[in-house]
Each structure stands twice: as structure tokens, then as C-alpha cells.
Fold this protein.
Amino acid sequence: MNRWWCIQEEPYFWVEVTIRDDLGANLKAPTKDVGGRDYWSYSILKEMKIGDTVLHYHQKNKGIVGISQVSETWKYQDIKWTPSKKKFESTKGPRPGFLVGIKNFKKIKPIYLKDIQKKNKEIETLSNSLKSRFGSSYFPFYIRKSRPYLSVNEGYGFIVNQDFVDLFPQLSKFIGNKFQIKQNIETNKKPGKQKNKPLKISSQKRECVELYAVKKAEKDFISKGYEVEQMPRRNFPYDLKAKKNEEELYIEVKGKEGPAESVDVSRNEVIHCKENYGKSVLVVVKNVKTKLTQKGLWNASGGKIKIIKPWEINDDHLIVNTYKYKVPK
């Protein structure tokens, strides 16, 4: 199993996909599939830590209908198993299983599959990004070749990242209000020593400039008659999606305090730009002014917008900053 969630600073969220009537009682899955084989969508329950957040997708309601927190890590226990598709798991009576305790289960205003399917492109981009970096995503949704919209994966346990949650503001807001998210990423740091550690000044300042640049670019495109939607900021290959009539643009925004002779771009941004030539736009907001307030917060102002449309990346446009070297075995 490729544990991509353990090497990221951003929160992650487990997803239960089920048809069970006792939703919110616990999480449970067989230790083996009907053929006696290990199945990652069952054994993923062993990865859950106390305090982790769980989203509950109910097959009958066709949507994410609840949220809870892990209260107890997994243990072996015989379980009664009601699979979503009986033809794959046609067994009777109790069977060995994994059981995870949960608490604070709360029903929410459903995020229906039809709402999730409206984010087809964004979710596919997120999943493909994780697959390209780590080999697997373990997302509960995917696009079949025979269908132009998202379907629900077969299985029981899945995981999504913060970028997925950010696509649905009502879900993101509910999670933020209901739980104080504290992910249990295993490190060598002593518990409690690094909690609530403030960002370094340079990081706060850079974040301020980036957020300001995105807002400035958003206002600029709105003034030109576009409908603009902000994308998840952490690992997404563009910052804004803009629509006007039949035109759809993917806008990457870079903010700089200086003259912006060059900007840093990620591997995902380069790949997305090349795959979406004609729709990709680069907006650079240069010469942004920053000021530290008496409360210790950074404010940004000014700046001049430069729009590169369409944004085309050729290899000779790129300057290598670092290489990743694969150490021989």
C-alpha cells in the first residue's frame, strides 16, 4: 500500500462506502475477500488513527451523508457482513473481520453523487496527480472509459485529501466547525512539542502574496465577464477556473514581490499546461508590496498583472532548480 497521506502535511479523510442500516455504529470489513485474498479496501481500516475524520457515503442515498471520528484503532472481530454487491461476497454468517470504533457521528446535508459528478474534471485531476506521484490514490470515485461521469468504486474503505474536501465548501465548512482536525502522522517528534507551531515569517509572507495574487487575478477576469471559481490551493495544477459562453480557462496564478523574471512551476502544473494547451493561462502579479501589521500579520497591496494567454510551456522555457536522484539498491 502506498501511504501517500503519511508524507503530506495537509489533512486527509477516510471514506466509508456502504449500504448498512446501522450507519455510524462503527467501521467494519472482512479480513479477506470471498476468494480468501487480502483486499486493500478492507485492510485500509488498519491505517486509521484515533482522531482521524471519516466521511460516510451511503449507496442507497447516493451521497456523503455523515461524518465521524475514529475513537478506537482496529481490532480483529467476527462480523456480519452486508456487501454493497452480493454477487461479489455471497457468504452467510459471521466471518473474521476488522473493526474500528468511531464517535461523534453526525448526519449532514448530503453531498449527492450528482453534485460530486459536477466536479468530474477536478476529481479526476486530483486522483491522477496522486497516481502519478505515488502509484495509487485509493479515491472512492473514478471515471470509467465507457462513461463520461464519475462512478463509485467497488470496495468499502477509501481515502481522500484536503483538496477533494475543498471542492465542496459546505462539506469543508462543516468539517471545520464540527472537528478540530488533528492528523496522526507518525514522526520522530515528541507529542505536543510541535503543536500549533506558527509559520515562519517568510512562509506567512509568501502565503499572503500568493493569496493576494489569486484574488487580484480573480477580480480581473470577473471584470472581463467571466464566471470564476477558485480551486483547491494545495496540490491542484491551477488556481482558478473561468468560464464565459463556451470558453473555459484554467488559470495558474503566481505572485511576486519583485519583477518576476521567472516563476516556480510544479511538475503537475507543467503536465496540466501541456495537456490543456489553448485553455491554460498564466497570470503573474509582480511587484506586490507587503507590510507587517502591528498584530504580526502580513498585508499585500499594489502589483501589476501580466497575463500569458494561451500559456504554452516548451522545455526550453524551463530552468531546472533541483533534481530527484534515485539511489541505487
Q: What stands out?
A: DSSP finds seven helices and 13 strands in the chain. Confidence is low (pLDDT under 50) at residues 180-201. Helices lie at 40-43, 113-117, 120-134, 162-166, 169-178, 201-223, 267-275. The longest helix spans residues 201-223.
